[in-house]
Amino acid sequence: MLNDLRLRKEQIFNSLKPGTNVLLEDKSFGKMIEKVVGWHPDHSFLITTLKPIPGIKNTLDNLSTFITIKFFVEGRLYTGKTSVFHYTFKPTGLLFLKEPVNLERISVRKTERVKCSFPGGVAHEKDNRFFPGLIIDLSEGGAGFVFKDPWHKEQFKIDEKVKLKITFVLQEKEIVIPSYIKRFFHNNGNTGAGLAFFSEAKKNWNL
User: Fold this and answer.
1) How high is the pLDDT of residue 190?
2) Which CATH class for the 2-106 domain?
């Protein structure tokens, strides 16, 4: 379990490419938006830009608590705690931050999710064998899917690209939506998956 968590963190950190915006928050300086410069090879610290804001040097010198860091990775918002252990303004402004801890993903859903009950299935991206189940909620950006048999969950993994099939019985219609698995969950004793639709799929599918 710890190895899985570490692997997930490394995937997130590896996605923080140079130029990615990070938001730093603390009551002492408010909010600062800086850009990622890079990670130390073993991910022990993060380097960002540092703007020469009036008074920031004195603020950083007297900073003794964790600060909040927020950033987007692959369209998902993450927040955590970090601390400053070094900074410089020569030859340019750079901020050295310890590896973020207590990293959490925050929901930034922009559309309402509607409860429903449609038969459907989930298949691997390049496979037409659908594992049957029930779609229990839908939104413009994703769906909640419960597997008919709990063991089917073991056929998939987080972030895997899949195909979601939704069957509209009354309309005698089926649609297949390219998606990826965001998370797994338990619903009334059943095992399910939270799916996110790819951006192009959001534009093209129409009920």
Assistant:
1) 82
2) mainly beta
